[in-house]
Amino acid sequence: xxxxxxxxxxxxxxxxxxxxxxxxxxxxxxxxxxxxxxxxxxxxxxxxxxxxxxxxxxxxxxxxxxxxxxxxxxxxxxxxxxxxxxxxxxxxxxxxxxxxxxxxxxxxxxxxxxxxxxxxxxxxxxxxxxxxxxxxxxxxxxxxxxxxxxxxxxxxxxxxxxxxxxxxxxxxxxxxxxxxxxxxxxxxxxxxxxxxxxxxxxxxxxxxxxxxxxxxxxxx
Length: 220
Hints:
The chain is of the alpha/beta class and 220 residues long. The protein is built from ten helices and six strands. It has helices at residues 26-44, 48-60, 66-69, 71-78, 82-88, 99-108, 121-128, 143-146, 155-159, 177-185, and strands spanning 13-16, 112-117, 139-142, 170-173, 190-194, 211-212. Strands 3-2-1-4-5-6 form a six-stranded parallel β-sheet, sandwiched between helices. Helix 1 (26-44) crosses helix 2 (48-60). The longest helix is centred in the N-terminal third of the chain and has 19 residues, at 26-44. The radius of gyration is 18 Å and the shape is globular.
């Protein structure tokens, strides 16, 4: 696996996404595409196909917005306790391979490490109760604190109001290509994607963004 050259001397802040970047996206895909449709069908006496279609239509109206990521929104919209349902399949929450080594490497370089996620506060609380990486971050910022999703115009301008950083001297790693495109448009200096956010799926086309297969590629 080829190393990915990074000009660490020119980087002061490392922004890291959570789901699909540091954590395996398999949990989230399984939860939203399999577990929720099953429980939704049971609750409202629907077939699995009917439940999946209804959920897809609901999601399509809010994709890319804060509501898409908001557990309170989905609890109200579906009439279901989303957090409790997540706990039912929480054994699938997992840190991606070599993430801990990468975080320790960043600390050895004395970089500021910021978790930058669209995840809802309740999602953060739940996941950090199952995986032990929270202590590696100098700061944890969710877009719900900012008031705008990472893929929306104006996110990085809003972020600068709460976090001091230089866009030119920042590295941002995220598996969401729309998020990366917004960051590129906003002038973030160094951008990386993830080739396989979900360990159970094939590698994806990252549309020109350099993609990390394993974090050992960055340990040099």
